[in-house]
Amino acid sequence: MMDLSGARQGLLQGFRGLVAGAMAWDLRAFVVPGEDVANALGLDLDAAGLIRVATPRHASVLLIAGPLPPALVDAASVVWAQMPRPRCILALGSVDLGPLPTPDVTAEVSQQGLISGLEDLRKLIRNGAFAHDLTDFDAPALSERIEYTCPMHPEVVSDEPGKCPKCGMFLVERRVSGAAPQAHEGHEGHEGHEGHEGHEGHEKSSTDSTQAEMAHHQTDAMTSAEASASYVCPMHPEVTSDTPGSCPECGMDLVPQAEAGEHAHHGHHGHGSHGDHAEPAAEPTGPYTCPMHPEVTSDTPGSCPKCGMNLVPQPEAGEHAHHGHHGHGSHKDKPAQRDQGGHTAHTAHGQQDAHSGHQGHGGHGVAPDIPGIEPHFMSMVGLTEGKPVSPDGLVMEWIDAPFGPFFPGLPGGLHLVLTLDGDSVAGVDVRGMTMPALPSGVDLDDLADRLADAVPLSPVAMRELACRAAEKATGQTATQADLTARAAAVERERIASHLNWLAGMARQMGLASLMRRATALQHRVRTANANEVAEQATAITNLMDSVLDRSFMRTKLAGIGTLQGALEGPVARSAGHASDARHGDPVYAGLGFQPITQNEGDAMARLRQRRAEIDQSLDLIAAAGTIAMPEMPRATGDGHGMATLETPRGPATLHLTLKDGAVASAHLTTPFTALAAHVPELVEQMELADALTAIGSLDLDPWSVPQ
Amino acid sequence: MSLATAFFLAFFGIAAIWFGVVVFRTHSMVRSAIALLFSQTAIGAMFLVMQAEFLGVLQIMMMATEMSVMAIFMVMFMMDPGGMGKMDMTHQKRLSLWAGGIGLVAALVVIWTAGWQGPVPEVPGADEQARLLGRELLGRSMFIFESAALMILTAMVAATMVAISPQEEDIQ
Amino acid sequence: MSIAVVLLALAVGCYAVAVLEGWAVHGRLSLTRPATSALALMGREQILPRTPDRLFFESGPVLLLIAGLLSVAVIPLAPGLIITDLAIGALFLNAALAYVLVALIMAGWGPNGAYGMIGGWRFLGQFVAYAMLIVMPITAVAMRAESLSTTQIVLSQAALWNVVYQPIGFVLFVIAAMGVAWLPPIDLPTGGGDLAGGVEAEYTGARLAVLRLARLVIIVALASATVTFYLGGWLGPWLPGWAWTALKTLAVAAGMLALGPRLPRLREAKYLAVSWKLGITLALANIFLVGVIALVVPI
After folding, report:
1. Which chains touch B (3 or more CB pairs under 8 A)?
2. What is the helix (H) or strand (E) element at residue C127, kind and residue range?
């Protein structure tokens, strides 16, 4: 009898047997890399009796659909680590899963494989859900260091527990994944956790990326407020310039002065957190003082009689007072204090002898004493000083929350980290996966296979693209009938792809029944022949009609994610740009193709646009009459060819160079990068749900990021 | 007063005081707010024990929402709302000690000098209480309550105005 | 005795609602699935997230369950079949439901995760939207019954159910009730597509089972409250009173559950705007209309 790879400790007997039986029936799957990919691979999870869950915490099966690209293996192992035991892996078509345990069941990528795999899995769970001795799961992505940081001064990071040298608060434990030497890597440092766990442990303390955002924010505020902003080197404050450029001394880019101030400020802080500054530097007034009440001094360590905080060695108290001054200096309403001289002094301070200069600054932090009210204590101004300010004027800590790469309702594999200010989006980091390098030295069939495998969401379009480029390169041409049938195959994929997108949007918006219907239809269409597609036409049109007639869809989508800047693909067409690679193509001209456009350019227009395109594709397939997959031409000799094809997500271009009948180089361009570049402006300051809807409505394909 | 009543009254009274102490003993703002909420809930339960059903339930209901709103304001405005840094939040200890001491003495003086009459002979039923309360609110005390309501509304609007920081276009 | 009967009825009701929810969400009507799911949850590991607020994490689901049970306590199944017939029952129901908010904030804050925390605080925003629309329709119901006692409220509908007498209040109350039970499309705290489970995202095993059970209790409580306030409670011909209450409750629950998967999740700002601008206006109009009718036409 075999145990599950993720069995739970315990003996399988009595009540546990019953429980194991129940668990075998109640399979809840978290789909990696994503439900959209599973749909595109022809896996019908609903038909197989699987329940999909939104978080690995609720899953019992890790369903790996198709080969897992290396970029996702780490994230998948984090997901695996988050799943409660007993847990198991069902891998369809994957061979190498890196650090993940050997899959409990492997099967081929097909509905049949899924069903038989689940059958095997049920038997395994029934017999092996509980086991005697378990092995702990470990993966490089899970290795983490514990570091300590101050809740008030996120720049204070230490490897050991203790108190903040600035304010005396206890440092808070936080876990950082990977072996990054410094937490300053920000996103990279947390990458391993992006599945669902990245937030744990530190979301209540801002990270360095937040700090960076803050610097940005204040810079923006400054440049808009002051027209005559001058530029300064972050390292060499004596270097100033009226125009942007680079520093003659160190080559760094000059930054606007406000930001330089921030940086100097940071450098300074960094210094403050070094251990060596704690050395008592022979201060005549007594070495210990309260971080909040500089007038309190003592020769011995202890607590402040006024606020009870632990006294800290004097130089750092000076540091803190100084910090207060600096913070004030960066306030919007006091631009006069941010003069060049001040910066020079402070930065020099940070770089040279940190101790000698302190006495001069010691007094700055003390606010005028108001009888009965202690300066700064619990003051909102004091506490929120230096924190990023939202446009609504509320100062809050920002948190970075991962919404990918396996977030339900978003394209699988899409790396998305939203910086949240409350529940509105203050910043976004969106990335796709870099495609593996297209091979050279292989034959054309191989190239087509690799392309189709690398972009699982639109394999037919990729194959057709390779075929067209190869035909250009070899100078061969297919017959008009062949070309038409192949165009019909691309159109069929367009219908399936748009339906798959609709299923994802429905998942995101909580429209369970629409999601099921759209998924089922896309399964029926994806591999259908022309007649079968025609049979489904009514069902598809009915579904799309009912979607559009739902006036509630409008309340969710209208006015969300308006984007006029996109130049290609359905997103551009829904904003009125009639750019379509099919336009002017003789094959499509023969089928009577005319580009369709909408005007509004919002998420609702994108829905209408895709609905119109589905109708159009149905007509095109009907006009073509047959569907045929492209046959790669035989290649001999050298040649160069370039082809552009309108994939379901926009035009993709392939440059192909042949040498002696084999592929010498291939270069692919896809719409992802251009489209993803619009995301930050698109979701800026949007409510979280609206932002996700807006991103989802773009139908990004994270798989096709060219190197 | 029956023994059971006395027991529950004491129980909820002690619970109210205990949660009140927790408010100051915890480092977490959210815990502090929720502790204050349960302290107030316990006071509501004391009302219930004393057969003031309407007042008790009203107290229990209002506090749940009020304290939740307070908690979110703490999370929004305060650093380290989870109390992970174990920052000492007490201040002005001498002043608070004096204020607390004077308050305690004043309360004791009131308790001992008030001319308590014996137990109220007949507590009207809960529906009768509600009816009497309604007549009071819409009769003799109507003016007081309505003016108080108006003042609270004014304060709310004013507080919102103060809270919104002036925007660029407002200044110009 | 009546307590045991009501609790048994509640258990059956919860199971039935779980079956209905499975049908609404997964599109399959299975009588055994809730049982197997519950058993399976019992067998799963209970994971404690990193640096949680352990007290909140553990007590959130339990408080939610208590709030649900307390709100059921004032719902009459039939004359005499009620856990406690408080004179201010309708107000008590409100008070108990207010702790749904507290419990969700605690459960969202406890695990120390971004999704849960946002989910919990989002529910506060949702509360601000629905709170008035729970209280104000009940006010109109109590005006007609001239009592806050749930039993009196049912009896006051002997001649004409409130759903006919004050239809505006009925619609408002049902929408608000769906907000209280965070039923789709108003499932902002757990929204699957926005927050990957939100408040539930970090709960596993038996703790998740408690959370889910508490939610079912709350759904039953709100459906039966709708029946009590607007659909004449146990009143009805032929069948015994408890059967009418049960049937009506299940019908209301099924209606609420069936609506969800067919509508896109409401946007929080939209929910707030509609609730305050339109909802409260209508609720005030409802109170006024009911007042006029109650004074003019004695039904």
Report:
1. A, C
2. helix C114-145
> To probe the interface with A, which of B84, B95, B169 has the most A CB atoms within 10 Å?
B84
Enclosing domain of residue C164: 2-296
CB contact under 8 A, B77 and A380: yes
Of residues A23, A175, A510, nearest to C187 (C-beta): A510
Sequence-separated (6 or more) residues with CB below 8 Å from residue C209? C38, C41, C42
pTM value surpassing 0.95: no
Question: Is the separation of the CB atoms in C176 and C130 below 8 Å?
Answer: yes
Among the residue ranges A251-260, B89-98, C121-130, the one predicted with the least confidence is: A251-260
Percent share of chain A, pLDDT over 70 = 62
Please report, to the nearest 10 degrees, the dihedral formed by the alpha carbons of residues C273, C277, C283, C289 taken in order: -160
Q: What are the tens digits of pLDDT across the range B10-57?
A: 999 999 999 998 888 887 888 888 899 999 999 999 998 888 888 899
- Distance from A391 to chain B by nearest Cα, in Å? 9
Query: Between β-strands A88-92 and A61-65, what pairing exists: parallel, antiparallel or unpaired?
Result: parallel
Domain positions in chain B:
1-81, 127-165
Q: Is A371 on the interface with B (CB under 8 A)?
A: no
Q: Name the residue of chain A whose CA is nearest to B94's CA.
A: A306
Out of A102-111, A545-554, B83-92, B162-171, pick the least confident.
Answer: B162-171
DSSP SS3 for A170: strand
Handedness of CA A200, A203, A208, A209 (dihedral sign): positive
Contact C47 A57 (CB under 8 A): yes
Residue A22 C-alpha, separation from nearest chain B C-alpha, in angstroms: 38
Chains that touch A (3 or more CB pairs under 8 A): B, C
Ordered domains of chain A (ranges, CATH): 8-131 (3.40.50.12280), 208-383 (no CATH), 479-630 (1.10.645.10)
